[in-house]
Amino acid sequence: MERGLASLGFRRQRAGSLIGRGLRSLRTRGVSGTLQRIRAEVRPELPQTMLEIPGSQPFAPFALPCPDAPRVSVVIPVYNHLDHSLTCLRSIAAHPSKVAAEIIVVDDCSSDDTEATLPQIEGLRYQRNPQNLGFIGACNAGAAAARGDYLVFLNNDTAVQPGWLDALVETFDTQERVGLVGAKLIYPDGRLQEAGGIVFSDASGWNYGRFGDPAAPEYNYLREVDYCSGAAIAVRADLFAEFGGFDRHYAPAYYEDTDLAMKVWAHGLRVLYQPKSAVVHFEGVSSGTDTSTGIKAYQVVNQQKFLERWGERLRANPAPGTPIELARQHRDGRRVLIIDATTPTPDQDSGSLRMVNLMRVLRAEGVAVSFFADNRAFVERYTGELQQLGVEVLWHPFLADVPGWFAEHGRHFDLVVLSRHYIATQYVDLVRLHAPQARLVFDTVDLHYLREQREAELSGREDLRRQAAQTREKELDLIRRSDITLVVSPVEQALLATEAPGARVDILSNVHEVFGCRKPFEQRHDIVFMGGYQHTPNVDAVLWFADEVLPLIRAEAPEITFHVVGSKATDEVRALGERPGIMFQGFVPDIEPFMDNCRLAVAPLRYGAGVKGKVNMSMSYGQPVVATPIAIEGMHAEPGVDVLVAESAEDFAAEVLRAYRDRELWQQLSAGGLANVERHFGFESARQAVRALFGG
Predict the structure, then answer these.
(1) What is the spatial order of strands in the sheet that 600-603 belongs to?
(2) What is the rounded CA–CA span in Å between residue 380 and residue 45?
(3) Buried b / exposed e along 157-172 (16+ C-beta atoms within 10 A)
(4) Which of 5, 205, 228, 432 is most buried, most CB within 10 Å of its CB?
């Protein structure tokens, strides 16, 4: 009964939220803008698992790459089954990698036509063992002949998919402390075979995801694993040599890959599952699947050998019967669920950048993070970026019944973060019912009612005053119902001490990398404004600056051009590009040219709340900022030292010209801004705030 009421309440709250947001959008964006926003939020972009498997055909010679200085050596042990070996090699030829890779086939005394056929493949490094060495011996022989910095062991009963090898190697380049990386293995019928392996405390193994959907969210994020099947793994060549290769203790086969992974972990390095690397595996072609007979029987024998060697370390692993959802990330001591309005787009708005960097901090703290957007959309690029941070991202249709999902999974979370009041309202009851053990955190992003109050005061509109009052009641109600409320500035924390006495309110502000000043004063020119224009304060700011401030600046310095950068621009903002001295840039995939080449940034906001990411971002590049008082609220910025501050159009223009012309002042502001971001908005400050969520 309680579950049914919670489900009904969720749907009622969600419907009310969508209607309210739609009406507000109509008031601020108009019909066309609202329809555009809806399309952006709900368009389906579902990932597809389309397998490419070369068909069987009569042999004709083909070519493989054979670089003089390979970075990667792909080692393929073979024993008979020529047709499968050709399928494997043809798939490699069909999907050439960006990374320089040599292909080595080690023929372990095949008795079919392998010896006569494979040497005809141009570029293939073919070597035949003088005697049968078994799978482990053949792999080690190939490794001894390899020239690459990385070894990739690939079964011959496989068909690699586009991008498979680059994804494996890229993991070593982008992740820290990586010793071994494994691929996603897929059956030829399209079912999942393995998304990384789990080893339980009794040394029994589990192919996580077996027979599941390869496109499902739980199998598509970068994850630490106990081991990965040796059918497709990459390992550092120096590390493999240091370990003496695959251990013949497990000859002829089975558990040698698990043992290698355990050695990597014992060495202080990590074993990762990389879902971007997909490989079709025709499991059982070489050894069958019956563990009671033949070589497959060694799987049972070698489990005991493995337990005898690693039993002490395995005590920290989950016991058999542990829920797989917990066992799959047992090294992460805590679990967090985050719900936001949409999938973060960190190159488009500061709220998204803060959210993504919060997830980075959580992952660095050893916290397992699950995330879904209220619209439950899959957004290929941005969803993929979160998955590569190690975040489990859920989406529709895999997450179709939200109340049902909470009922099944809610008990596993230690912390639930609900972002933005109009999203959080829908989920509070579900969290309290199905995750009573979890701390409930309401992340305001900024106090919406404070921003709306200021907009109403600036415009003098009574309807906006009423809307602000309604928002205030909703936000304060959520604050009272939550265990912890997050704000981004001490100004908002102080306000809530009066507005919501007794509530715990913590500061978790914007989080930024510090890039540093990379070009001197003399090599820069022009000024820039950066912001997302779905956010109405940014629209008001850029229009006010273009109408009231820029003409005063260009009257004295007509050589200065104003660059308008940002996504989701309104027609009014786009039209600014038609004016003299203004270049409308719109969304740019890389903001660094504007951070490095423009002499100044401006933040002419006339209302708003929270901490302004545009100001943080410019400061993090050592780019001086001229801002209004509201734009630096809560930033600990000292006027004249970290930033120049002006409110009227005349004063704002004067400060822009002063900083633009005065090299010594410019350098002072550049250094002050960098120090401000590093001190107050770096990752260390965020780490302290995150730790307090669990321990304070």
Answers:
(1) 582-586, 562-565, 527-530, 600-603, 625-627, 644-645
(2) 7
(3) bbbbbeebbbbbbbbb
(4) 228
- What is the C-alpha separation between 86 and 95, in angstroms, rounded? 14
The tokens for 60 are 């004709």
Is the confidence at residue 31, as pLDDT, over 70?
Answer: no
Q: SS3 for 152? A: strand
Tens-digit pLDDT profile for residues 531-583: 999 999 999 999 999 999 999 999 999 999 999 999 999 999 999 999 999 99
As annotated, the residues of the chain forming the CATH 3.90.550.10 domain(s) are 72-317
The 10 Å CB-count burial string (b at 16+, else e) for 273-294 is bbbbbbbbbbbeebbeeeeeee
| Structure token digits, residue 497 | 């001490």
Question: What dotted CATH number matches 72-317?
Answer: 3.90.550.10
Fold of 521-680: Rossmann fold (3.40.50)
Candidates 597, 610, 533, 611; CA nearest to 569 is 533
Pairing of strands 150-154, 72-78: parallel
E-assigned strand segments in 79-124: 101-107
Superfamily (CATH) of domain 332-507: Glycogen Phosphorylase B; (3.40.50.2000)
Which residue(s) pair with 104 in the sheet? 75, 125
Residues carrying CATH 3.40.50.2000, the chain: 332-507, 521-680
Place of tokens 């789990």: 198
Residue 129 makes CB contacts below 8 A (sequence gap 6+) with 106, 107, 108, 109, 137, 138, 141
Q: What is the dihedral of CA 491, 494, 500, 501, to 10 degrees?
A: 170
- The CA-atom distances, in angstroms, between 446 and each of 23, 220, 610 are 21, 32, 5
Q: Give me the pLDDT at residue 251, please.
A: 86
CB neighbours of 127 closer than 8 A, spacing ≥ 6? Answer: 104, 105, 106, 107, 141, 142, 145
pTM equals: 0.89
The H helix count followed by the E strand count for the chain is 24, 25
In contact, 317 and 395? CB cutoff 8 Å: no
Q: Are residues 361 and 329 in contact, defined by beta-carbon separation less than 8 angstroms?
A: no
Q: Is residue 527 a contact partner of residue 563, using CB atoms and an 8 Å limit?
A: yes
